[in-house]
């Protein structure tokens, strides 16, 4: 029993050390969260869809038949609920740079019986998004991981339909945390108009609109 407990303690300590090392390195470099650490992005929820996810989707005002971009989707915390919201007449594009993250979303979609998710392996700002395709787009604690944030937001701006909404979520727990002033500067430079703010300086959601005439 002692040896098993000792091994468990060592394993837990290793996970903590590696996690801290990634967080420290991420503050100096734009490193995406490794696939094996996806639990940091999507902690287990005993009640299915978490209250945090429900709030995010509510602020995004997603409706049936919409096309939604989940940019930097990770393991799909938001992708799967969004796919349920848009229904069979709509589509969610799960976009991520890491193949392992997209495989995780594919497995979840298969388990949920969803066929309205399109998978795109690409970096945000790489020019892989079609113009005027999406009604909604989300960036969930991912903006700070993008080396070219200006180019990324310009690409999302062009990919949204006129009147489309971008939602940006940030939390201080993320090593790539972006302040509200930084997001405001970047989104404004891309052409977005601020629509709504929810939260506080340490954890918040911002929504931005692409002007109807753009």
SSE inventory with pairings:
Layout: H1 2-28, H2 51-60, E1 67-71, H3 79-86, E2 91-96, H4 99-112, E3 117-121, E4 134-140, H5 149-159, E5 160-171, H6 180-190, E6 193-199, E7 203-209
Parallel strand pairs: 1-2, 1-4, 2-3, 4-5
Antiparallel strand pairs: 5-7, 6-7
Describe the structure.
The chain folds into two domains: about 1-30; about 40-210, Rossmann fold, CATH 3.40.50.150. Helices cover about 40% and strands about 25% of the residues. The chain contains six helices and seven strands. The chain has helices at about 1-30, 50-60, 80-85, 100-110, 150-160, 180-190, and strands spanning about 65-70, 90-95, 115-120, 135-140, 160-170, 195-200, 205-210. A seven-stranded mixed β-sheet has the order 3-2-1-4-5-7-6, with helices on both faces. Helix 5 crosses helix 6 (about 180-190).
Please summarize what this structure is.
The protein is 38% helix and 23% strand. It has 214 residues and is α/β, with parallel strands linked by helices.
What distinguishing features does this structure have?
single chain, 214 residues, alpha/beta, Rossmann fold, seven-stranded mixed β-sheet, 38% helix, globular
Q: In this structure, how is the largest beta sheet organized?
A: 7 strands, mixed
Provide the helix percentage.
25-40%
Order of helices and strands: HHEHEHEEHEHEE
Question: Could you tell me the number of beta strands?
Answer: 7
How many structural domains does the protein architecture include? 2
Output the structural class: alpha/beta
Give unreliable regions as ranges.
none
Question: What portion of the residues fall into strands of 2 or more residues?
Answer: 15-25%
Give the overall silhouette. globular
The CATH architecture classification of the largest domain is 3-Layer(aba) Sandwich
CATH class of the largest domain: Alpha Beta
Indicate the radius of gyration in whole angstroms. 18 Å
């Amino acid at each position: 029993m002692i040896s098993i407990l000792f091994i468990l303690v060592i394993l837990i300590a290793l996970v903590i050390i590696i996690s801290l090392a990634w967080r420290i390195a991420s503050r100096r470099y734009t490193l995406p969260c490794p696939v094996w650490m996806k639990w940091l992005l999507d902690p287990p929820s005993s009640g299915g869809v978490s209250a945090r996810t429900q709030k995010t989707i509510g602020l995004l005002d997603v409706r049936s038949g919409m096309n939604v971009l989940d940019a930097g989707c990770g393991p799909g915390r938001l992708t799967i609920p969004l796919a349920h919201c848009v229904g069979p007449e709509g589509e969610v594009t799960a976009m991520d740079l890491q193949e392992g993250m997209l495989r995780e979303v594919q497995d979840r979609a298969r388990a949920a019986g969803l066929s309205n998710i399109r998978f795109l392996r690409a970096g945000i700002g790489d020019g892989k998004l079609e113009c005027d395709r999406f009604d909604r787009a989300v960036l969930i604690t991912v903006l700070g991981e993008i080396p070219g944030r200006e180019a990324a937001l310009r690409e999302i701006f062009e990919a949204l339909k006129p009147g489309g909404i971008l939602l940006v979520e940030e939390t201080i727990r993320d090593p790539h945390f972006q302040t509200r002033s930084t997001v405001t500067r970047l989104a404004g430079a891309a052409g977005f108009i601020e629509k709504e703010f929810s939260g506080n300086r340490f954890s918040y959601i911002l929504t931005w609109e692409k002007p109807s005439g753009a």
